[in-house]
Amino acid sequence: MPAYDAIIIGGGIIGCTLARQLSGQGMKVAVVEKGVPGQEASGAAAGMLSPSAEAEKGSTLFELSRASLKLYGPLAAELCSETGLDPQYRTEGTLLVFESEQERQAMLPAIEWQRSQGIAIAEISGQDLRKREPLSAELPGAFYLPEDHQIDNRLLMRALVESCRRRGVEFILGKTVCAVERNGSRASGVRLEDGSLAARKVINAAGAWAGSIEIAGMSPAPIRPVKGHMIALKSEQSPLQHVVRSHRCYLVPRRDGRVIVGSTMEEAGFDKEPRAGPLAKLLQAALHFCPALEKSAVAEFWAGLRPASPDGLPLLGPTALEGYFVALGHFRNGIVLAPITAEILSAWLLTGQPPSGVEPFSPQRFAGSPHK
Q1: Looking at residue 371, what is its pLDDT?
Q2: CA distance 10 to 36
Q3: Which parts of the chain sit beneath pLDDT 70?
Q4: In sequence order, what are the beta bridge partners of 266?
Q5: Which pLDDT score is estimated for 366?
Q6: Alpha-carbon span 105 to 114, nearest angstrom
Q7: Taking the CB of residue 186, how many other CB atoms lie within 10 A of it?
Q8: Residue range(s) defining the domain that contains residue 304
Q9: Model pLDDT, residue 1
Q10: How far apart are CA 196 and CA 267, in angstroms?
Q11: At a CB cut-off of 8 Å and minimum separation 6, what does 16 contact?
């Protein structure tokens, strides 16, 4: 008999949220992680839950992100109750600022499209912006997105891992999955560098490294890394109350006085080394939009790797190899999409039936994908 009902490859937010969901349904689950849970993209993110700020007119991803955001309040409350760890889910909203009429006009199509669907978005003047954020720069105005929220992603990961452990999830750490093993037409487990683990189901949630996992007779997952630089500035009290976003950077205030500044998007392979040029541009942009940050300490800086698919949409669901599933390619939206990804994959794994509305995210849309 297989040792596990399910093995999840990757201990980031996608893998851990799914593990928690499956174990809560009575499955025996193992998470195999090459390092420490949440140390890669999940720890490198800013924790923005921003369907509206990220929206493009007609976006396929928008409704999925909105559905996932609605799950965050209950999830944060459950995690706090289960573990005593508060992931600091915040609902002050986001200020999408513009510096010129040209920038405002560029934002309007996505704003008007959302308003046509009944989503509340208010345009505020520069004067009103300064009332909401007295220490921000003088700007012509902003769009206020009350339904875009944030969470401390590092605290969230700690709470998820603790919740998983309390639910019986086994973490196998410091182990690299080299291949998905198969018995004929179905997955039978995973091969590590020093042995194998058997399971009825295998889920690849390995983020930017998903394509390095071999499956005999199948193409690798079409996922590539996209580098992003980040900075954490620290003050005695945060000079901001809302998430502030512009075309140049975003500023995410934390309750401990930190402001997370991000981010770049760079095609740099698997290079995670922070570089002076991108960091300098982020600092310059942060001080431009919030001059009060000038005296803040530079608490930390880093670079992470987002897992991107060829079309920027996630790959969610089963593959041509029976029992082998993928939850990949969440790119800039891994934090916000984690709860809905867990619901979709767990429903599929437990019932064998696809949830409604997931066709745009099928891995089968790519020729030579893991489904082929």
Answers
A1: 47
A2: 10
A3: 1, 367-372
A4: 227
A5: 84
A6: 15
A7: 13
A8: 94-146+225-308
A9: 56
A10: 34
A11: 31, 37, 38, 157, 160, 161, 164
